[in-house]
Amino acid sequence: MMQLDHLAVDARDVDASSQFLARILGAKAPVPEGADDDMRRIDLDHGCFVLFSPASEPRFSHVAFRVDAKRFAEVVERLRAERVPFGNDHFDTANGETGDPLGGAGRVYFNDPNGHLWEVTC
């Protein structure tokens, strides 16, 4: 067996970034993590989690999540409700399209307040 344990993502504002992603993904609210509670953790399925760590200059990240069709539709609706630009092309993350040019059932890219590129596909 091989599976992902966690992703570490730098953020200027760990609260804003983790809350944003948790809302968009429909995950539980982030929880404090680390010896000083300076990080924020979003739990995903199968024991995997995303860990936001404070950084004055976050490094660029691109992280993709695979979800089922129901959750994909919910993610798209939340992006629309929060007026977050999204698109199905990582070079045009604001085209508003959700069709998957790579042949899947759907794909969207969007940026968070720290400039990380997130992807959700089904």
Automatic annotation (TrEMBL):
Domain VOC: 3-122
Keywords for the protein's UniProt record, in alphabetical order: Lyase
Molecular function via GO: lyase activity
A Pfam cross-reference name: Glyoxalase
Source superkingdom: Bacteria
Database matches in InterPro entries: Glyas_Bleomycin-R_OHBP_Dase, Glyas_Fos-R_dOase_dom, VOC_core
Name this protein carries in UniProt: Predicted lactoylglutathione lyase
Natural source organism: Myxococcus fulvus
